[in-house]
Amino acid sequence: MNSKPITPHWEHFEHEADIGIRGIAPTLEQAFEQAALAMTAVVTDPDLVSDATAVAITCTAPDTELLLVSWINELIYEMAVHGLLFKRYQVVIANGKLSATAFGAAVDRQKHQPAVEIKGATLTELRVYQQADDAWVAQCVVDV
Amino acid sequence: MDTSQFIQRDETCWEIKPKGAMRVPAIIYADEQLLQDMDQKVYEQLTNVATLPGIVEAAYAMPDAHWGYGFPIGGVAAFDPELGGVVSAGGVGFDISCGVRTLHTGLNITQLEPHKQALADALYRTIPAGVGSKGKIHLNHKSMLGMLTGGAQWALEQGYGEVQDLERIEEHGCMDGAESHYVSPKARERQKDEMGTLGSGNHYLEVQRVSKIFDPAVAKVFGLHVDDVVISIHCGSRGLGHQIGTEFLKDMAMSAAQYQIVLPDRELACAPLNSPLGKHYLGAMRSAINCALANRQIITHLTRQAVATVFPGLHLDLLYDVSHNTCKLEQHTVNGQKKSLYVHRKGATRAFGPDHPDLPDVFKKTGQPVLIGGSMGTSSYVLCGTKESEQRAFSSACHGAGRAMSRSKATKQWQGRTLIEQLAAQGIIIRCPSMRGVAEEAPLAYKDVSAVVEIADRAGLARKVARLEPVICIKG
Do residues A102 and A85 touch, judged by C-beta distance below 8 A? Predict the structure, then answer.
């Protein structure tokens, strides 16, 4: 019996001081993309951001959970150093290595009304797993 | 949380006896109400801290403790290197040496009142705040090195501030033992355009009125009188500290097994103080402390410039500068023996009491000023260190109100524009680049800072000196 395929999506979850990001999708790569979109949404509404600029990102880690943290931290670094916000992502994961392109635009304080700067992705509530319905979940708390 | 999990030692001291892998007890300073309101995660995180190698006496939580990362925010723990003690990147936090400094203006509220809007505009124009703001200072390789090793002393040499500022900064403005070669190229890159910026989130610059004096003798030494106007700055080591925290957290998580450290929570990632990784982190973290001290020094300079455009000739003296996310080597007495311990304070303020050798002469009789920031629209407090705080929690006190509600809940409950209007009706001017940022920092999203400070005072962690009310708040 085929169950209905999961639509890739993201959500925030509660942390008392900060905020949790979670991506849910049919594949691990898409779950990482959605978690990153949840991270953008901590700062601004992703719909307000254009995708004119592409940034290539690679990172490695000894396990998938640390790979998620490394991925989000690479994005945070690019956002901080180049003053960017990202609207969408393309992620490929193979043999513990992540290769991705992040598409976004420079921060426009008037247009994006960025709420908060993200300091880093933490290992708190860090989980990457496959649910009973086969959907992948990638989540952690980000410090703001 | 359920108070029946604790043994109540006295009015404000609640103990969890060692169990399982705990090496020492866990102690929370709170009254019954604050304890009930704390998240159960504080209990879990504090008892996890108590399992770490080389921890001494107890794992402590201040009255403002809340759910953090590995360590609770408001957590204090000291480690003995001779007992295999560890240093934890999560136990310091991402915003290394985040802290508060307070400046005297020499004005009283009546003198400020007609110029409030002009001062708010001048400060907002002059001090870069919020996401995407850049400073006017650009560090090259040489100036980066100077900043990382020199802290506020370096800033002073660059023309930011006055020489008398230094004795009123912890470590006299320069953290010893900074080893800038352990600060990665990425951390440097992230910082090179961020000097003199406030950041965002709960960071702010606030013009405040002294609304109450609790201890007139100490307040006199601190130079505080009712209706005086002071300016407080709350910010930290910006992108550099965040990047150092990020990198060492991962390295420590990956190497825990190598050091035979069992982590009940990966976020508690740590390394032995005597290991290469532990030493590298200490060298980098101390560089980040210098970055924070330099940053607050530069913002002080910008504040003086902004104030001078509205009140020419005014001289702004520094009351004190405290850091509340640090790990510092300190001398403490344990079981009658002097010990050199590495004290982690994660969202906790150092609170050295009278006669402590590290204090400048001016504070030798009073203990150090302990600056407790409120949230936008609520009170802040000045306290002083006590002698008994040494026995209570290695001379530590709370650092602020502590959040009571998550950011997402706050944005659902309040609108930035409405909050600004409500605060304006109370005579408080808010300047912030982001309305959502204002909503996330709504005053009611935080615990009652007065209740937290009251308990810190009753517990003997620090003693109340003065209360400050906000007049102008520049939010990051």
Answer: no
CATH 3.90.120.10 fits B3-404+446-475, yes or no: no
Q: What residues does B323 pair with on adjacent strands?
A: B99
Q: With contacts defined as CB-CB under 8 Å, which chain A residues touch B402?
A: 17
B399 among known catalytic residues = yes
> Alpha-carbon Rg of chain B, whole angstroms?
21
Sequence spans of domains, chain A: 9-143
8 A C-beta contact, residue B290 and residue B238: no
Q: Grade residue A2 by pLDDT with cuts at 50, 70 and 90.
A: low
Contact status, residue B39 vs residue B1, Cβ threshold 8 Å? yes
Chain A residues whose CB is inside 8 A of the B201 CB are 116-117, 144
- Which H or E run includes B419? helix B416-425
Contact predicate B333/B425, CB 8 Å: no
What are the boundaries of each domain within chain B? 3-404+446-475
CATH code at A9-143: 3.55.10.10
When scoring A110, A124, A142 by the number of chain B Cβ atoms within 10 A, the one with the most, hence best to mutate, is A124
Query: What letters, b where the CB count within 10 A reaches 16 and e where it falls short, cover B49-68?
Result: bbbbbbbbbbbbbbbbbbbb
- Chain A residue whose CA is closest to B267: A123
| Helix, strand, coil share of chain A (percent; to 5) | 30, 40, 30
pLDDT of A91 strictly over 90: yes
Position A1 confidence tier, pLDDT thresholds 50, 70, 90: very low
Contact B201 A116 (CB under 8 A): yes
C-alpha–C-alpha distance, residues B205 and A53, integer Å:
34
